Every structure is written in structure tokens, then in C-alpha cells.
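Thread title: Can someone regenerate the structure for this chain?

I was given the following input by a collaborator and told the matching C-alpha cells would be attached. They weren't. Posting the sequence so someone can regenerate them.
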Amino acid sequence: MDRGPIAEINLSSFHYNLKLVRRIVNRRPVIGMVKADAYGHGAPAISKEMISAGVSHLAVAFTGEAKILREAGISARILVLFDRYGIEDFFDYNLIPVIQDIKTARAISKEARRRKVRISAHLKVDTGMGRVGLAAGEAVAAAVKIAGMEGIEIVGLMSHFSEADLSDRSYALKQIKIFKEIRNGIAGKTCRQVMTHMGNSAAVLSLKEGLFDAVRPGILLYGHSPVKEQYGLRPLMRIRTNILAIRTLTKGSPVSYGRTFITKRRSKIAVLPVGYNDGYNRLFSNNSAVLVRGKRAPLVGRVCMDLSMVDVTEVENVAEGDEVVLLGRQGSGVIDAGELASRINTIPYEILTSLGSRARKEYIH
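Best answer:
Regenerated them for you:
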């Protein structure tokens, strides 16, 4: 049998979410974030939907992700956000590097000169994330220097918010101020007008000052809000599997490793072919639920590498082979990524990427 979870990805929900984003950002270009396998939703398929819907650019973390898209026949403009070492790949696969430092810029310029071509690039400035990018105090001078390097054409300027999802917007507004100062300092010194972008999903929803020329929504397109309000978003992902076996256990019977769950009554325990190898976190042990025949069934015992157990004693007419939903809707029941994230003290991003990337995918409209 094919074991493990199946991820149903609803592409109609993607288009609904994209329309919502466009209503908010007006005519600004949308840069679609498809890094981390499109947040677990399958980057090639999602990228094709984005392109068909007129998304301006795609964005990935490293060149390896971009190569997968090119090999899938995707010819759209692709930004590579973090890679400093895939220099030849930038040229071989017609990618747009995001330059974060002088050293990388020199390496790109050297390769461009060798090939006798020009490559378009965006500059990344660090306005307070403290991760990567040209230091704010040196960004203008560095940008001018990079723009003067042979073979490089600077077409974009970007930064990233540290906490645009917080109700206290003071730090985000400080980052915006720094970014504007850098943008204004660069204006007219890099030979052309550049596209500025800083707005992630949280900024799209709650920080209009940070939208600039283009926006970079990520989790928003996949149907989840990074802020408290949900805005009627439609999640794309539904994770399901089927009951592998049902055991009837007497009162006082242990379930799974370490005997962390002991039945308190005669119980029906369903065994699911999903474990932490499939991205179903071990911290869900005795700490989550699934949907069976539209009813919640608690997870019992420790999540194993390949299997998990749920108590289906209260589920009428349950049978081996029945569908089980780990994430999403079944009947009137729903288990969303926010709920699963809160159970193990993480964020929906991790739930989606962990479960989605390892699941077999089925795309529906």
C-alpha cells in the first residue's frame, strides 16, 4: 500500500485568496512566495497557478528550488532570496539573485563578465531583521558600488519585516523609515528606477505604509492569516489518510511506546499509517485529535515513526479503511493549522511545511 498522508490542495481557494490580496494592494505587482515547496503545497503546481493568474515574480530561497521550477517548464521571473553560492545557476537558469553583500556582487559580476552578459538583480538591505542584507548605515554606498559593477543591473531594492504581525507597530514603522531613507539615498545614483518591496503577508493585511511598489505575500496566499483577524481566507491544504487497523482493547491496556496512555475503559483504538516520519510532530502524542466520520477522535499514546493511534470508541460505525482528516474539514468538523500549531507551541507555517512537503499531493479545483 501507499502509506502516509495525502494532501488535497484546493487551487480554487488559492485564486480566491489572491483576489483578496489584490483588492487590498490595488495595482501593485504580487511576488508569489513559493519557497519551502510553496509552504508545503507543491511549488511546481502552485507556481503554474500563480503564473496563470498574472503574478509578477516567483520567489524561492535557494537556487535548488528554482531549478526544480525551471525543470518543470516554468519560465517566469524567479527571485532567489538567500543564495550566495549558486552563482553559475543564476546564469544557467535565468534567475534573479538577491544580492546581500559586496562579496557576492563581485562574484556575480565576475561571472557576468566571463559570459559577456548582464544579469538583473535585487539588493537586500537589513533594516532591523538582523539576518542578511547590506547594513543600513552602509547600504547607500554599497548599492552605488554594486550598481557600478560590470554585468550587474540593479532592478529591485528590498528588505524584510521583523514583526509586522504585532499589534505594536513601532518597530515595523522604524524599519519603514530606515528603508525609505535608503531608497531615497539610492535614487538617481544607480542609473535607473528600481522596484522597492518589503510587504510580507502581515504587512499586506495591517501595515499599508509598508507596501511600496510590490508585495511579497506568502502564507496569506495559502489561506492563513499571520495576524489575529482571519479575513475570510480559505486554506488550500487538507491532510487525510485512512484507518489501517482497529484494535479493541480491554480496560487498563497500554497504547504505544512508554505506556503514556492507558485505556480507562474497553476501547476501540484506530491505527493510522502516519507518524513523525510524515511530519506529524511527536509532540502531538496524547495532545491532538483527528476527524473520523465528522467527529473528533483524540490521539492516544506516543506518535511513532510510521504510525499513530486514535481513540474511536465514541465514533459510530467506524471501520478499517475509513477516511481520517488530520488537517482541514470533514463534515461539520474542522481542525486548522492554527489549532495544531498552538498545541505544540509553534506556528502554522511549520505545520504546513512539515505535513505538506512529505505528503502525496492531489490538486483539486
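The longest helix spans residues 170-186.
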